[in-house]
Amino acid sequence: MFKEYFQYKGINFPHFIYSEQVLQMVENTFQVRDDDVFNVTYQKSGTVWMLEILSLILSNGDPTWCRTVPNWDRAPWYETVMGYRVALTNKSPRLICSHLPVQLFAKSFFKSKAKIIYTVRNPKDVLVSLYHFASMFRPYKDPGTLNRFLEEFLKGDVPFGSWFDHVKGWMNLKDEENFFFITYEELQEDLRGSIIRISQFLGKDLDDAAIDAVVANASFEAMKSNKMSNFSRAPRFLMDHKKSAFLRKGISGDWKNHLTAEQSEHFDQIYRERVQDLDITFPWDRKCNRLSPGSSPSGRESGGREGGDLDFATPAPFPQPQKQHLLLYFPAARSPDSLPRQPAAKSQDSSPGRGGCRGLRSSAGNPTLGEERPMAGQAKKAIEYGGITLPALVHTEASVRYAHQRFQVRDSDVFNLTYPKSGTTWMQEILSLIYSDGNPTQRWIPSRTAPSWERVPWIEQKTAAGYLENRPSPRLISSHLPPALFPESFFASQAKAIYTVRDPRDVCVSLYYYAKMSSFLEYKEDFGEFIDMFTAGKVLFGSWFDHVRGWLTYRNRANFLLLTYDDLLQNLRGTVFRICHFLGKDLDVPAVDSVVVNASFEAMKDNKMVNYSLIPETVMNQKISPFLRKGISGDWKNHFTPEQSAAFQRLYQQKMKEVNIRFPWDVL
User: Fold this and answer.
1) Which of 15, 99, 404, 547 does the annotation list as catalytic?
2) Which candidate, 402, 540, 381, 401, places its Cα nearest to that of 467?
3) Does domain 5-123+158-240 have CATH number 3.40.50.300?
4) Could you tell me the CATH superfamily of domain 311-655?
5) Taking the mean position of all CA atoms in its chain, how far away is CA 184?
6) Residue range 403-419: average pLDDT?
7) Cut 0.70: pTM above it
8) For the chain, how big is the Rg over CA atoms in Å?
9) Can you tell me the distance from the alpha carbon of 543 to that of 536, in angstroms, rounded to the nearest whole number?
10) Is 395 in the active site?
C-alpha cells in the first residue's frame, strides 16, 4: 500500500499508475475524435459493467472481442500512464474509460461530436464498494475502519475527489445531445431495455438476437467468469484478490449490510445538503421528489440554451371551448340533467377515511362484477367485458368488442397504454407535442386547440373506433385495456406501444379522488374500503397487478417501450428523447425544449384542452377534486396508515414475485 496520494488541481490521485504529466496532457493536448465513445463514471459505479456493454454493442453482440482482449485494452482509462498510450494508438471508433471530474476532462471533447455515457450509482453502495476495493488495490491507501473511510469519502478525501462534486459537475451536461445519463440501478432493473436505449444513443441498430447476446454476455455471472473482464490477469503487485474480489457482488443495497443506522443517517444529512440544488431525483432518493412534472429538468421554464427560446415555449391564450369536443366522447353532455349528481363530499380538501384496509380484506358485500350496479351511489349502469368492468357512460360491450376483435391496427399506429391514473394524460400531451415537432398551436394534433381525448382517443370508447377509422396516419391512440382484450391485429403488426407504469399505491390514491369527483364511478368514502376494492380488482379496468403483469410479457419486443411515471418525473427531457428515439422522431433541441415546457404539470393544468374543465360538473365535479391533482410520486404516504402500507406491501410482493424487473418504488 502507498501512504500518500498526490494532488492535481485539488483532486487526489494514487502514485505509480497516474502522473501529473499525463493528467496535464489528457486535459490540454489529447485530441478527441468525433467518433470516440467515452464511458465516464465516478469510481465503483458500474464502469466495468458499462465497458462490457459498450464492447458488446460495438461488436454487434459478438463476444469474441470481450473474450480475447483485456478490457483495459479495449477501453483504456486514458488518464492512467499506460491507458493514455493505448488510447493514442487505438483505431476508431475508440472506446475510452475515465473517472475524471468534468473540469479535468480533455478540453478537446467540448468542441467535438464524441459521445459520453455517464453512469451514476447510489453513493452509499459506491462507498462500500470503494472500501473493499481500497483494501485490495495496492496503489490506494489502507482504508482503515469503515467509519474513518466514511468521513474521508464524504469530504472527498479519496482518489478522484468528491462523489458529490463529480456527479454535479457532469450532470451540468445532461441536456447535451452527446451526453447520455443512466444509473447503475436502471441497468439492474431493466438491462435489456437499457441496452436498447444505449444502442439508440450510439446509432447502433442491433436486432433482437444481437441484443440478447449483449444481455447474456454482460451479465454479472458472465463477466465474473471472463478472465478478460474480471481483472484476474492484473499483476499481483496491483491487486490482491485474496482480500477482495474485483467483481464482488454486483448488487444494489449492499450498504445496508455495512452501515449502522447512525452512519446511514449521517450520510443522508450530508447527502441532502450537497445535492439540494441538483434538479433530478435518483432511484435511491426516497424523499419527496425535487423535480416535479412542472419543473424543467434543466431548471428552466423556456429554453435557455441558444436557439431554445421559441415563441410557442411560452403558454399562449387558449381558444374558447368547442361544444363538439364534449359531444364526441362525453355524450352525456348533451343533456347534463340526465346524470345524477354525486353526493356532496364533506369538503374539497378533506382527507379520506383512514380506518379501513384491515388486512386488505375482501369486500364480500360489493356487487358482483358484470351486474348492473350503482355508480357513485346512483342507479347508473356499468358494463362488463372479458372479466373487467367499465363505466357505461363512455363504453358499451359492442364498442369494446369492436376494439378487441375487429379494429384494424396500422403499422404506423402509436399506442399510449396505461392502467388508469398512471400518467395517461401526461403521455397524451407528450405524444401530441412530439408529433407536432414541439409546436402546441400548429399541425393536425394541436395541443391547445383540440382536447386531449380527441387528439389521442381511447380505442375502447363508444365513438372512438369510428372516429379513428377516418384519422390519417400516424394515429395516436390511448387504451387502458389489458393485453388479453387489446386489438388482436396489433400483435401481428409493427405498430408501436408505449406502456407507462406507476407505483400502485399512488394509482390507488389517485383513482380514489378520481372516483370521488366522477359521477360514473363507484366511490367509497372510507379509504380503507377503497383500498380493498382496488386490491381485489373491483375498480375501473380490473386488477392493477394483472394489467401490469400482462403487458410486461411484451417488454422485450422491439415495438414496445416500457416507462415509469418516475422516469417522467425524474428526467422528463431525457425521457422525451427516449420516446423520440423509439418513435424515430428526430426533434432538434428547441423542439424538445418546447415539448418539456408544454408538457409540464403547470402548463397542462392551465390548458383547458387537457385539464378536463370542458367536461360538465355533472360528469366530473372538479370542485370536489381537480382532474389534474398533484402530479407527484409518493403521495400515498399521506393517505395509507402504516398497517395499510404493510398489508399492501405483502400483497404486492406476493403478486409480483414472478416479475423479473425492479421498479423505482420497489424497496430492497
Assistant:
1) 99
2) 402
3) yes
4) P-loop containing nucleotide triphosphate hydrolases (3.40.50.300)
5) 13
6) 92
7) no
8) 27
9) 7
10) no
